[in-house]
Automatic annotation (TrEMBL):
Keywords per UniProt: Coiled coil, Methyltransferase, Restriction system, S-adenosyl-L-methionine, Transferase
EC number(s) stated in the UniProt entry for this protein: 2.1.1.113
Coiled coil spans: 87-114
Name by which UniProt lists this protein: site-specific DNA-methyltransferase (cytosine-N(4)-specific)
Catalytic reactions of this protein: a 2'-deoxycytidine in DNA + S-adenosyl-L-methionine = an N(4)-methyl-2'-deoxycytidine in DNA + S-adenosyl-L-homocysteine + H(+)
Family: Belongs to the N(4)/N(6)-methyltransferase family. N(4) subfamily.
Organism (species): Kushneria aurantia
Length: 406
């Protein structure tokens, strides 16, 4: 294991240069290159499933390769964003869009004196200075005037994607760490800078949509533990990367996007959504975790052993962390069980997941996944190391593979 490389080409650093894949930054997003390699292993007439869509990396890679795919996510913002990312666009409509963006910029000054809506982000001045924030609020109001609030319309959605990109680029958000952090200084922007930057971002986003997509992808809102949203469809290859058992809240990374687009309005909504997600830990999700208990589902012995070790660690949060790890793999076991009814005979599954460490106790995610899959009747179960993660020396990313023979 010590010779395994970090492989920056298997992280978002590689994605940023890949057109639509680089539209918005999400630290935990997995590698376009890795997904492309897995898609290439799929027969061209096969149907792909991604039950943890995230930023729609699998859906877009499949579409770029001429495949048909369905994806699922419990976060409505990611469902909206994924469908925009995988949409087909017509050049004449894109030209109309750019003309409408010019109108947005032209009418921006008329909104500067208005009392514009601002998102209820806690400590918002940490994100944007008192001079830049009103400019963003005015630009948002101008976009609403021209396009309305975010909707299913793919062309107006491009304007909102560009605004999200502008919003995060003008913020103090820093992505040089495993999780999003903040820069020491908040940059001040003038109105002409905002207008030019927005125009440049729109041009880059529009330009990336001109590549012809050969397949089709659709992202649905639903819970990966039940998969009932997919109405019994059948699939030949599952390519996905679920949240890792590391207490990194995905809602934390998404909050600024979701507040500005009104997919979130109140802090409590973030906690409620994170509780529904596998591995969620934001806000009320933590307090609800204190009351959680499994319902008797038989889980791998190795999981119970490591949870017991975590429970007896010398920490005031030991019980909470033991429950967190237990619930994470309980939920993933439920997912693997539900997945079986959606797989054609001979279907292959590939899960990219990282291991974790709690109080010095290594949680071997890949081995626990393997044990769950074997107990549920999957065949040819194995795992391989994908890369060394940019953190503690014992942490790696794995690809867990299995077959379903029906």
């Amino acid at each position: 294991m010590l010779s395994v490389k970090q492989r920056s080409d298997y992280t978002f650093r590689f994605n940023k240069k890949m057109g639509r894949h680089g539209w918005l930054r999400l630290t935990p997003a997995y590698s376009v290159k890795l997904v492309q390699e897995l898609v290439e292993e799929t027969l061209k007439d096969a149907r792909i499933l991604e039950p943890f869509s995230g930023t729609a990396t699998t859906g877009l890679c499949a579409t770029e390769s001429g495949m048909i795919s369905d994806s699922l996510d419990i976060n409505p913002f990611l469902v909206w964003f994924g469908n925009v990312k995988c949409a087909h666009f017509e050049e004449n409509e894109l030209k109309k869009l750019e003309q409408r963006i010019e109108k947005v910029n032209e009418q921006l000054p008329s909104f500067l004196e208005a009392d514009n809506w601002a998102p209820k982000i806690h400590n918002i001045e940490r994100w944007w200075c008192g001079h830049t924030l009103p400019l963003l609020c005015a630009l948002r109001a101008s976009i609403v005037e021209e396009f309305g609030e975010p909707s299913d319309d793919q062309y107006s959605s491009l304007a909102w994607v560009a605004f999200c990109r502008l919003m995060i680029e003008t913020s103090s958000a820093d992505f040089n760490h495993v999780s999003m952090s903040f820069k020491e200084d908040v940059t001040r922007y003038e109105v002409n800078q905002i207008k030019l930057l927005f125009k440049d971002i729109v041009e880059a986003v529009v330009d990336s949509t001109k590549e012809n997509l050969l397949g089709n992808a659709e992202i649905f809102l639903g819970d990966s533990r039940t998969l009932d949203t997919l109405n019994g469809k059948k699939y030949d290859h599952v390519i996905t990367s679920p949240p890792y058992p590391n207490r990194m809240s995905y809602i934390r990374e998404l909050r600024p996007y979701m507040y500005w687009t009104k997919f979130l309005n109140e802090k409590k909504e973030a906690g409620e959504l994170d509780w529904k997600a596998i591995g969620g830990t934001w806000g009320t999700a933590t307090s609800k975790l204190k009351e959680w208990a499994p319902d008797g589902v038989e889980l791998p012995e190795s999981l119970l052993v490591v949870c017991e070790k975590i429970l007896h660690a010398e920490s005031k949060n030991a019980d909470l962390m033991a429950r967190y790890v237990h619930k994470y793999f309980y939920d993933m076991h439920s997912h693997f069980a539900s997945l079986r009814s959606l797989l054609n005979a001979g279907a292959k599954i590939d899960y990219i997941v990282g291991n974790s460490s709690f109080y010095g106790n290594l949680v071997n995610s890949e081995k626990i996944f393997e044990s769950s899959l074997v107990s549920l009747g999957y065949k040819n179960v194995s795992s391989r190391i994908v890369r060394k993660r940019n953190s503690k020396k014992e942490l790696f990313e794995f690809c867990v593979t299995a077959k379903w023979n029906g």
